[in-house]
Specification:
It comes from Macrococcus brunensis. This protein is about 45% helix and about 15% strand. The protein contains 8 helices and 9 strands. Strand 2, helix 2 and strand 3 form a beta-alpha-beta unit.
Length: about 260
């Protein structure tokens, strides 16, 4: 299937590693022009080099902090100056701080909301003037905890839920401009954090053995791969999903308790 991504210009935050990096590689393979964004410039340079070796294409990057409004503006300005337009914004920057409510300081709430919610807002505000010129797609990465928060998941599950509400609201507000807004809710996907957990809990097991441990209670029987997440994300921002907006798709192997 032709996803219609050739020559589309995409900005991906949090893309020096993990799902963001894999999505950048896949969009590049599909012919998109991708700008990687993260705070760590060395990590960005390594990601750009890895993707170049894989695809033969040279990518652009911006070292920036999306919690700062001026940095968000700098990112979008770079995209337009480099490629002349913007078609896709993927908000992937984020972290997971989860604790019992009584143990969470007010500063923890502020830091989490600054990155997950206000980071999205800064990027969307900066991107809108360009996206409104020809339409486009915004994709927000959140977690299944945003739909069904477990115990001891403050503040991350609360900020994730706020992001889902923002996604749905924006899908209505921006539809007249042909700007689609969707989200994906990530479950257990192989990442540096999961691999560290594997080495701490069961270093004697292979990754395949660990990923299929029944304790994870995943109906599909295994932890997912970053490529599997990137496949869904790439579809949602592509022309192939031109009639999809305002939805939040679980990428969790069936473990989510809510649609």
């Amino acid at each position: 299937m032709d996803l219609g991504l050739k020559d589309k210009v995409a900005v991906i935050t949090g893309s020096s590693k993990g799902i963001g990096k894999e999505t950048a590689a896949l969009l590049t393979e599909e012919g998109a022009k991708v700008i990687l964004v993260a705070r760590n410039e060395e990590g960005l340079q390594e990601a750009v080099q890895t993707i170049k070796e894989k695809t033969g294409q040279t990518l652009s990057y911006v070292a920036a902090d999306v919690t700062k409004e001026e940095d968000a503006k700098k990112i979008i300005a770079h995209a337009v100056e480099t490629y002349g337009r913007l078609d896709i914004l993927i908000n992937n920057a984020g972290s997971a701080f989860a604790e019992n409510f009584e143990n969470v300081e007010l500063s923890d709430w502020q830091n989490d909301l600054n990155l997950k919610l206000f980071g999205w807002l800064h990027m969307i505000h900066a991107a809108l003037p360009e996206l409104k010129k020809q339409g486009g797609a915004i994709l927000n990465l959140t977690a299944v905890a945003g739909k069904t928060p477990p115990a001891n998941s403050s503040p991350t599950s609360v900020s994730r839920a706020a992001g889902l509400a923002l996604t749905n609201t924006l899908s209505k507000d921006l539809a007249p401009y042909n700007i689609r807004v969707n989200a994906v809710c990530i479950g257990l996907i192989r990442s540096g954090q999961i691999e560290k957990r594997w080495q701490q809990e069961a270093p004697e097991k292979s990754w395949e053995e660990y990923a299929r441990d029944p304790k994870f209670n995943i109906p599909l029987g295994r932890i997912g791969d970053t490529r599997e997440a990137a496949n869904v994300i790439s579809f949602l921002v592509s022309d192939a999903a031109s009639y999809v907006t305002g939805t939040a798709v679980n990428i969790d192997g069936g473990s989510g308790a809510a649609l």
